[in-house]
Amino acid sequence: MARLSLGALLLVAGTTVLSAQLATAWLDRPLAGWNQPGGNVPASRIASDSEATLERRCSAPKTASTGAVDAIRKARWVPYLHTDQAIASNDIEVIGGMTGATAGCEPLYFNLFVFAAGKFAGTVSPAMMAPTRDGAAGAVRITGPDTLTVEFARFMPGDAECCPSSRVRVSYRINRSSAGPALVPTEISQIR
Questions:
Q1: How many structural domains does the chain have?
Q2: Cα separation of 105 and 137, whole Å?
Q3: What are the pLDDT digits (tens) for 93-130?
C-alpha cells in the first residue's frame, strides 16, 4: 500500500475541498453561461478501461435517442436515465452521463447533457456532480419549446449527509443559432 506524506494528504484533501467548492460556487454567484453554440460534449476524465467496465455493468438507456447516446459515449461518459426516466419533449432531450456508479448502477459522478433537435446544447452544471452532495441535480422539467428547469440540492450547516434542507431551481433557455443550440441559465430561485 502506498504511503502519502502529510503534505501530500493535505494537498489531496485541499484539492477535494476545492473541487467541491468549485462544483457549487456557480450556484452562489450571478448566473453566467458556460455552454457555447456548436460545442461538443465535454470529455470525461474516466480511464478507458474503467469506462468499458462501467458500460458493461450499467447498460445505456434504451429510450434515449441514438445520436445523443453516441455523443455522450464518444466523450467517454456512460449514458444513463436521470431519475430512471426519459426526459424529452418536443425536440429537447436530457440524458445523464456518469463516470462512476454504485453496485446498483446509481451514478456516483455525473452531469446532465441537454440536446435540442439532436444537437448538443450544453450541460446543466459547469462541474461534475455527485449525489448526496451540495449542488446535485434532482428534478428536471422541460417547461416549453426552448426552456427547462433543474432543481439542485443545497446543504445547510447541520444537515445530515442524506438530507439537504434547501433546494434551488435554475431556469434555462436554449438559444438557437446557425452555429448550434446553447443552453443558457437565466434565473435561480430558492424553492426550499
A1: 1
A2: 17
A3: 999 999 999 888 889 999 999 999 999 999 999 999 99
